[in-house]
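Ion transport domain-containing protein
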Amino acid sequence: ALQLVVGQGAGRGQGRAMRCCDSVLWESLKGFFVGPICVPAEQDIDLLFFQRVFKNLCRQKEVRRIAFEETANCASTYGHPVAAQNLAEAEAAFGAELLDDGREAAYKEEKLPLIEFERAMVRLFRVLRIKSSIDVERYDIDGDGSVGWFEFCSFWKERSISVQLSLAERIFLTLEDPSTSRLGRIISILVFIAIVVSTGSFIMSTVPDPRIQDRCALQHEEGYDESCRPTPKRFLQIIDMVCILFFTLEYGVRLLLSGVVRTELCDRDYSQLLRWVTSDEIARTPSVLKRVCTFVSQPSNLVDLAALMPWYLEAASGQGRDNALIQLIRLTRVIRAFRLGRRFEAVIIIMRSLKRSVRALNVLCLNLCLGMIFFGSLMYMAEQGEWDSSRQMYMRNIGFSWSEDLDKWKSVTQRSPFESVPACFWWAIVTATTVGYGDEHTPTTPAGKAVACLTMIWSLCVLALPIGVIGGNFEKVWEEYDQEKVAERAAQARREAIIKQSKGFADPLYFCRAVFFEVWHNSGIAWPDTGKCQTEFLGQAECFLDMPPSDMVAKRRITVPLSSNFSQSNRRVSGHLTFEYSWLPHAKASEDMLMLGRLQFHEISAVDIVRIDSGRGLPTPYCEVYAMPRPSQDGLRRLESLRTAAIPETCCPCWLQPLGFDMLWSKAAACQHVEEGMRRALYHLEVAER
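Tokens:
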């Protein structure tokens, strides 16, 4: 797959593609060991969900406004109210207007009536089973009967809304979504292994060698039974039974819990909960029976059920090996392999390619059918032969043989395989698809050979066109899928930035406490044009320090692991970084001052830093320390950096050079920084999504 993608650009971007693949693989391997062991009972709803609620409510309000204005215009023009735009057209008009304006301060300008804000939050509390009341007028800061985005943020900050999951919901999430916990990923791997083992055991049970035959009486012996057939060996039957019991347990647990699980809270992005909260219609909670029916009717769960049923039908009938219907149903156990499709990207790409190539597939089938009928009829007329009334079949001449008795050549005839037009269809399909099984469907007459030549030329010219379209669609879908994954990673980075900004909104000193370290190798080689030293990345680390505004912290030591950054270097790093810091707060000059003091680093050291490929392989490392001593006015995270001296040729450096930052954070500046940062992050996220 990677060769296909890389080969398209004739080597262009090959290194970038390899780095991207390497980084994704490394991040996925690291992702297996991160996260909670089990699904936590309490999960906080981040500010990003509230941003989506606010955006949907604003969109609905704007859609209603556009539809009302268009209806009013039509009413004034034609004398009666006529809906000029439907809901989809109004939404499209709203989206185009938002993109044309490019309003970066859209969240500050948009306002929602208090009644819509109250309706959405009451629905949210009802689904989350929160019994506290909501005083919406409390959040109307300017008293205009509406709330804006930052008043939404104030509500989120004050209430600290979280999802309380029951034990049943936690077990269901563990089995249904492996990304929620490490235990879920382990169970997902076990299911994957069971699918492979079960499918393999079924395949091996059809091979003659792994099968045994019970001692059956021969045809001339007493007790002869025609139904005595080979059976798989015992160990294959045990493997199959164990896998079936495992699948039954996994499917049964999910089926039993599906009725009591709030599926609207099990979505990773809370999409169903978002629709319930923001919809104009009354949100009704599904009943237990409806939830179970919804679970059973899902395609993936139907595949699981179809894979389990044959084994139980065979066991219940007791004659599975003698019943033709049971034997046919038994073959459906290979459907279990389709569950692997949910875990492989190649299956997704193939399905998208086929969906996009429906028209080309229709043309392909039409050409095959037309060619099959036309050339099959021609071949019937050319190779039908002559009717032999004594044998009651068509006979054709296949050659000549020498007769010793007659002392001459005589014709050799055999039954014609082209005895009817439908019988010729098989030959037409095999020839058009260039398969050529080499069976008896071979023309022997000059006319038949001419028809075969025309069929092959026609198939090469006509069938190649739709097949080329399907191949082109496959290539486009592959490129689009790669771009989609890149866009998803970028969107995920933006969402993480919003979540980080929301933490800053909840705690104005969140960014003040963050410290960032980078370790670099000093090569001693300078760039000719700038004079700056050429460096290599050796690792990074981020840490949030304990810095009470009024209490001193003296020489506290912290150890953090060094992590890779593939945007800096395609290198997996190793080692740990240890630093010792002190925090000395100053007396506050005013009540508006949140943080005033000096952050001092006394010692920074590292162990087991990754080696490099120059000299003796030992790096000459130095460390850069980044902090945010004061908030910025534009919302950007503007860091100040200090740098240690380089220590030559060591993998365990210890920098004793003292470094310090003078921290100055006021309440007004911190709030402005957080608001501008949140507005900027949400604006860029919405532009990227649109």
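The first strand starts at residue 42 and ends at 44.
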